[in-house]
UniProtKB/TrEMBL annotation:
Keywords: Signal
Species: Nocardia aurantiaca
Protein name in the entry: Uncharacterized protein
Composition bias, Low complexity: 107-126
Signal peptide interval: 1-26
Region (Disordered): 107-136
Length: 136
């Protein structure tokens, strides 16, 4: 049975989340491929931004690498090619598809105090350009 995760109207199958694990660059400060990245292994926790997203961009913060949709902490997409997300040190993985290159803006400490907020897990997690908080 295939489970589906909905992200801003886009269906992402759990199989796609598990299909590939990407590798970030040597410094782990950017992600340039569609893949699932392990936090602390492939990428550093922190605030990431993309300005090169395709018209269909979807991402998800994950509490586990599993086909179970309950592992989804937060999902989102891009607005006008731009998206920002805070990947927390407690996240297990980050899935991205069609979002272009994500670049680390600010690292997040293990206490989670980066100075910026990403909204709640029930929010979209998207920041409009020039804003530092998610809109409800």
């Amino acid at each position: 049975m295939r489970k589906t995760v909905w992200a801003n109207g886009l269906a992402l199958t759990a199989a796609a989340i598990l299909a590939s694990t990407g590798t970030a660059d040597a410094a782990a400060t950017s992600m340039g491929t569609d893949a699932t990245f392990k936090v602390g292994v492939d990428i550093q926790p922190g605030i990431y931004k993309t300005t090169t997203a395709a018209s269909v961009c979807a991402w998800a913060r994950l509490s586990a690498i599993t086909p179970d949709a309950s592992a989804t902490i937060q999902t989102g997409g891009a607005v006008n090619g731009t998206a920002t997300v805070e990947i927390k040190p407690t996240d297990v993985a980050f899935f991205t598809s069609g979002c272009g290159t994500w670049t680390l803006q600010t690292t997040t400490t293990t206490s989670g105090s980066s100075g910026l907020t990403s909204g709640s897990a029930s929010g979209s997690g998207l920041f409009p350009t020039g804003s530092s908080s998610a809109s409800s």
